[in-house]
Amino acid sequence: MNLALEGTLPFQNAAILNYAENAGFQLSGLLSIAGTAPVQFSGILNYSGATEKTVQLAGLVNISRNQTRGAQLAGLVNFAHGGTLPFQAGVILNYAENAGFQLGGILNIVGNTSVQIGTVLNIAKNVSGLQLGLINIAENNEGVAIGLINIVKNGGKREFEIAGSETVNTELSFRLGTNRFYSVFIVGAIFLDLSFDFTYGAGFGTHIGIADTWSTQVEVRTYSFLDSSISMLHQLRITVEKSFLSSKLKVFAGPVLNVAVSDDKNSDGEYEFRFTPYSIWSGGNSHVGVNIWVGAVAGLRF
Q: Does 216 lie in the same domain as 112?
């Protein structure tokens, strides 16, 4: 155990605890605590009270106040209060009032940031660059959020769509994200083939402005069917959209490249594609068959 209550100590090394009002380098098997310390390495916890520049590496937890340069790397949790921390990396939680780059395994929380990357959840007030994770939530995002669920409070996309095509005759979609990148969640029905089936799916897309009331959307979608010879349906959609009534109501139409995948065979040993109208190419192997055709879609968005 090392205790330095006054002055500035260049180096501390202890198996259990380092404590100093001011230290240059702290190395501890368990705990390092300092008022100011540019470098802290500990097995469990690092705490720095008022250091503008600190590099903290801990097996479990890092805590700093008013840090503007340096980095925090922890096995579990990083917490930075005040200042703007350039980099945080933690397995469970990263929290900072301001951070340049957060890299987390489960949860990242920040006031202002350029980049957040996490496997599960990113939460930020203001994002100037990238959010990448399963779920991304921001009050303002001037960059792009890429994930399954992307929620932006101000200026985000929350849009419903009712559409029909030669394959999925009626479908309801919901878009969530931003114009740069959004997710699509879909439910639909097929009934024009003298049979009935439900479908559900998801996808992602981007919205590109052309003129004041004209735009185009590029989307990739994947559908599954409840009772069909088609196992999966993949689509590439390129639609042109015209907006009315201050952009609240929009009409759209465009071509669709369809790729159906089936593992169902008829009595002749050929793969079945019950809802496909025609084929421009088909093939397969002993496990699955593939059928490709070009169709069209049209509908309303609001």
A: no
